[in-house]
């Protein structure tokens, strides 16, 4: 059974999930080539996944049948499990919590070779709707404190299957990295009485040097203190602390900006491995004026080494202003490393 264990020095929680070692190709380093063979996420192979918890399909079609355009299923090798209450305990000086949570996979399309930067915009909208629908459903479970939505693209970014998919993990604690953002945003608000993310948006629109894409409701830019080359954030222009409050016109707009951003990254960097994460206000907190939900997109172009692990600093070989220029159509990108 999985469990959370707390580092007594940093306060960081770690998930010990031994079942994850049963994933395909666990701990095996492979060459960066596309793999051929059976895919459990392709249409027609529904019996090889757990039964769907959500599917967008024609009205009247049967559950777990092939005629879908998006499915959400429990992860077959979950990091957390949901069939028991939250149990906190001590192990001598150490703290732990049983591995209660929910772990689901969003199968984004029946097309095995699709890329979000090339999908029909309506299909990208459906991915966003799935994120919203599942978040709202998980919010009903009082045991859960936070929903983390993320995507790993290609093996170098942690994907064990190539078929386009993302994941949702809901847990009974707030992740340390998210808590650090919440605390930092609260300090900024206490000092200036403004949302730091709203101020970032105003600054980026004024400077213009790091803006990748912009629409009526959303903006995508490379953050001023980018940790990684070509790191990109997408934020709603109007302050909103909860992702799941997104409205229909905003979903349409976000899909356009997300698709455009991913298309630029794919074209400029030759389809790099990447991760994206969606950070939002914890489920049990109320709407607030200081925290602003957002997406973070991180291409996997460099590796953290001893200095980074030892200090917590990041070394980024590309200034975000230069990276933004290189994301423009026709720009040539130098080797990153």
SSE map:
Layout: E1 3-6, E2 13-16, E3 54-56, E4 70-74, E5 88-91, E6 94-98, E7 102-107, H1 121-138, E8 146-153, E9 165-171, H2 176-192, H3 196-207, E10 211-214, E11 218-221, E12 232-236, H4 248-269, E13 274-279, E14 294-299, H5 306-311, H6 320-326
Antiparallel strand pairs: 1-2, 1-6, 3-4, 4-7, 5-6, 7-9, 8-9, 8-13, 10-11, 11-12, 12-14, 13-14
Helix pairs in contact: 1-4
What does this structure look like?
About 2% of the residues have low confidence. The chain is of the alpha+beta class. It has two domains: 173 residues, 2-Layer Sandwich (HIT family, subunit A); 150 residues, HIT family, subunit A (2-Layer Sandwich). 24% of the residues lie in helices and 21% in strands. The protein contains six helices and 14 strands.
